[in-house]
Design brief:
cytoplasmic vesicle, 103 residues, 3 helices
């Protein structure tokens, strides 16, 4: 009679066999809303900052430059996660709503 190690055998009584798994690929609404708001405020910051720098609002170009840099900092993650959400919505290969971190 051959030796059989039952510690690693898979049987029908195994707990994992009875459970069913479903893929939850629903869009995370709060995370997408945050990404869109970062994108919108980033674009507004860049545009208003450029206008303020050109017109020297506040006496010099420093105020406009600050707003443009702040807009750029807001724009980058907003664009990145909005792009991921869009591609996941359209069903592109390699993109999923699971790639968007939770808030």
């Amino acid at each position: 009679m051959a030796y059989v190690d039952h510690a690693f055998s898979i049987s029908d009584e195994d707990i994992m066999m009875g459970t069913s798994y479903s893929v939850n690929n629903k869009p995370p609404i709060k995370e997408i809303a945050l990404a869109l708001s970062l994108l919108v405020f980033g674009v507004l910051g860049i545009v208003l900052g450029a206008v303020m720098a050109v017109n020297k609002v506040g006496g010099d170009r420093a105020h406009g430059t600050f707003f443009a840099i702040l807009g750029g900092i807001l724009f980058l993650p907003g664009f990145y996660y909005t792009r991921i959400a869009y591609y996941a919505y359209k069903g592109y290969k390699g993109f999923s709503f699971a790639n968007i971190p939770a808030v």
